[in-house]
Amino acid sequence: MSTPIYPLLRDLGLQEYEPVWRQMQEFNRTRDEHTRDEIWFLEHQPVFTLGMNAAAEHVLAPQEIPVINIDRGGQVTYHGPGQLVAYPLIDLKRMHLGVRDLVTALERSIIETLGGYDISAAARPDAPGVYVRDAKVASIGLRVKRNCSYHGLAFNVKMDLSPFQRINPCGFKDMEVTQLSDLGGPEQLATVRDDLALRLIMNLGYNAPPEIQYQTDPIIMERAS
User: Fold this and answer.
1) How many beta carbons lie within 10 A of that of residue 93, not counting itself?
2) pLDDT at 221 > cutoff 60
3) Structural domain tally of the chain?
4) By the 8 A CB rule, do 158 and 185 touch?
5) Which of 9, 86, 167, 170 is catalytic?
6) Is 170 among the residues known to form the active site?
7) Is residue 222 part of a domain?
8) Looking at the domain assignment, is residue 216 inside a domain?
9) What are phi and psi of 37, to 5 degrees?
């Protein structure tokens, strides 16, 4: 299979966290140098996730929300409905990207998406993610294995932000968290997904597709041949 000039985009809808995480691992495990890169867009049911080096004390009061230890970098974060999640499954070697390049591309894509809504945002060198003033609007956590990435970004669009008060987001006590709808941006995830998708494609180094299209059928893991 020849390598396409842009990744396959999938819209997975609202999903439980762990099955999608396992599918990402399997995709990474079975892919080879011919496998097409993909970006998965979705929402998750409420969950707290802790990265490989996360400190358990940053989970303050999970109550009814599950807590899952996972294999990305970073500390603790929250996922829930109304948050746009994007998982870039990228062959970094093929795309000539380092890990820092990937983080920068994800941050830049979110910042440019916000800029399109007349919202000024920035990255921080001490804490990956995107911030509007001092409030975090998007988180980034990645895993790179076999020179390929999985996990990705979580962009707060229109969601219940109260679960963030039950953790120290990304390991920072009293970090303020915000969302796009409170900043005057659009509330529709599909609108934000489309705007973000095109910026991700360009910032990751692909050529622009003729149009943005998504696969919505179930993910089938198979080694390219």
Assistant:
1) 12
2) no
3) 1
4) no
5) 170
6) yes
7) no
8) no
9) -65, 155
* Residue range 182-192: mean pLDDT, rounded: 97
Asked whether residue 211 is domain-assigned, the answer is no
Task: Report the CATH number that the domain containing residue 166 is assigned in CATH.
Answer: 3.30.930.10
pLDDT band at 70 (very low <50, low <70, confident <90, very high): very high
Q: Which of 80, 87, 74, 42 is nearest to 62 (CA)?
A: 80
Q: What is the pLDDT of residue 225?
A: 32
Query: Confidence band (pLDDT; 50, 70, 90) for 176?
Result: very high
Q: Six-digit token pair at 146?
A: 């076999």
Of residues 51, 134, 143, the one with CA closest to residue 88? 143
Answer whether 122's CB lies under 8 Å from 147's CB.
Answer: no
Q: Is residue 3 part of a domain?
A: no
pLDDT in tens, 130-172: 999 999 999 999 999 999 999 999 999 999 999 999 988 878 7
Residue 101 reports pLDDT greater than 90: yes
Alpha carbon distance 49, 65 (integer Å): 10
* Structural domain boundaries enclosing 105: 8-203
Q: Is the pTM of this model over 0.85?
A: yes
CB-CB neighbours of 15 under 10 Å: 17
